[in-house]
Design goal:
- The chain is an alpha/beta fold and 413 residues long.
- It has 2 domains: 239 residues, Aspartate Aminotransferase, domain 2 (3-Layer(aba) Sandwich); 133 residues, Aspartate Aminotransferase, domain 1 (Alpha-Beta Complex).
- Helices cover 37% and strands 14% of the residues.
- It has 15 helices and 12 strands.
- The protein has a 7-stranded mixed sheet with strand order 1-7-6-5-4-2-3, sandwiched between helices.
- The longest helix has 20 residues.
- The protein is globular.
- It binds pyridoxal-5'-phosphate.
- This is Cystathionine gamma-synthase family protein.
- Keywords: Membrane, Pyridoxal phosphate, Transferase, Transmembrane, Transmembrane helix.
- It comes from Marinomonas transparens.
């Protein structure tokens, strides 16, 4: 393996084979479900974990393996697993590492479906406390004797709150609590949660990794920072080998194999190709987002702008310290009396769609869509104003983006 310093250099050279003589530069799409062996003994050895090999595509294929190792490299981890969606990766992790009677501390500022998933965990007897994770003191105050895990997002959507990442990491390490970080909105290009001692890192591959809005995928990466020896929920069968990978083995067996939210080789291939330009896309989209945030903040029809690149953002300094750039998600509250839908319809460049991390600029009002089911009371608690619009900024040319927003806002009455 050649060793390169840069993020993109490592991704584009990731699939490089030992020899270039007639071998594919991309790991091919292996669409076979079963994998055959010359002798029964060979197959037995694979089943018993004595030799490394594939048996059935629900657990792994050479194509998903290749994507996994690329993700591990970008997150500086010790191993990764890929799933059919980001939600599959999250549910796999929660359901295999927590059980009835355990306590989870989670950020109050979560992706809407993650919030919904966490309320489901409560039905299975897992206690959950939601806290304002922008300040470690709130996490500390929520600690119980049965607390096993803290879950936060790096950069929350839609409010762009930034968790107290480093302080929570220090506290989790000191308490022996698992620190699970959703890195989707920053991606390993902007931030690697291992730097704040995360135990496990999740990425929705549907966002910046794939980048083109053409495939769903999710990943969990084990950073190697957590020693699982005393963690109560690791099954005996997986308490062997490298201790820093026990959780990953358990998630692979109990979630990927038993629950089956597996990524197809077709999907893995598309994500791997998309990831080659992740840094290039993000450089452009983050620059666009910053320029647009400045335009919006200066406009008299706009109330609050939520973008960590603005000095007015409550965690601007934290973002500047930890993140390479400020991200592509930008939200704003339209002043009371103006209609969000009317504005969105008059900004030509916007596509009315949910989703984040696309090459195109997408936007939607929050209270009437993603957070509709939550109701006004919980929306207020989660920092979702009734006039909030969320944008996922794309890679369009900056002038087109700025002109289109300026025109839409000026027209608004
Ligand atoms: C999109 C997203 C998810 C879920 O990922 P899917 O691939 O859509 O299932 C989880 N967390 C965050 C922060 C996301 O943005």
């Amino acid at each position: 393996m050649i060793k390169l310093k840069g993020f993109t250099s490592n991704i584009v050279h990731h699939d490089r084979q030992q020899s270039y003589n007639d071998s594919p530069i991309h790991t091919p799409i292996y669409n076979s479900v079963p994998y055959g062996y010359k002798s029964t003994k060979d197959l037995e050895n694979v089943f018993q974990g004595k030799t490394v090999g594939h048996s059935y595509a629900r657990q792994a294929t050479p194509t998903t393996d290749s994507l996994q190792s690329m993700i591990t490299q970008t997150e500086l981890g010790v191993g990764s697993l890929v799933f059919a969606t980001g939600m599959a990766a999250l549910s796999a992790t929660f359901l295999t590492l927590l059980k009835s009677g355990d306590h989870l501390i989670a950020s109050r500022f979560l992706f809407g479906n993650s919030y919904s998933l966490i309320t489901t965990l409560e039905n299975f007897g897992i206690e959950v406390t939601l806290v304002d994770a922008t300040n470690v003191e709130n996490v500390i105050a929520a600690k119980q004797d049965n607390t096993l895990m803290v879950f936060v997002e790096t950069l929350a959507n839609p409010g762009t709150q930034i968790a107290d990442l480093a302080a929570i990491g220090d506290w989790c390490e000191q308490q022996g609590v698992v620190y699970f970080v959703d890195n989707t909105m920053t991606s390993p290009y902007l931030f690697q949660p291992i730097r704040v001692k995360a135990s496990l890192v999740m990425n929705s591959l549907s966002k910046y990794f794939c980048g083109h809005g053409t495939v769903l995928g999710g990943a969990v990466t084990e950073t190697g920072m957590y020693d699982w020896t005393d963690y109560p929920n690791i099954f005996d069968a997986y308490r062997k080998g490298d201790k820093s990978k026990w959780a990953l083995t358990q998630i692979k067996k109990k979630a990927l194999r038993d629950m089956g939210g597996s990524l197809s080789s077709d999907g893995a291939y598309q994500i791997a190709v998309g990831a080659e330009t992740m840094a290039l896309r993000m450089d452009r989209a983050c620059a666009n987002a910053l320029a647009l945030a400045q335009l919006l903040e200066a406009h008299d029809k706009v109330d609050t702008v939520y973008y960590p690149g603005l000095p007015s953002h409550p965690q601007h300094d934290r973002a500047t310290h930890w993140f390479k750039l400020y991200g592509t998600i930008l939200s704003f509250d339209l002043k009371a009396g103006y209609d969000c839908a009317q504005l969105l319809d008059s900004i030509d460049i916007i596509i009315n769609a949910t989703h984040l991390g696309d090459n195109r600029t997408l936007a939607l009002p929050m209270a009437s869509t993603i957070f509709y089911e939550m109701g006004p009371e919980n929306r207020a608690k989660s920092g979702i104003s009734e006039q909030m619009i969320r944008c996922s900024i794309g890679i369009e040319d900056t002038d087109d983006l700025l002109e289109s927003f300026q025109h839409g806002l000026d027209e608004l009455s």
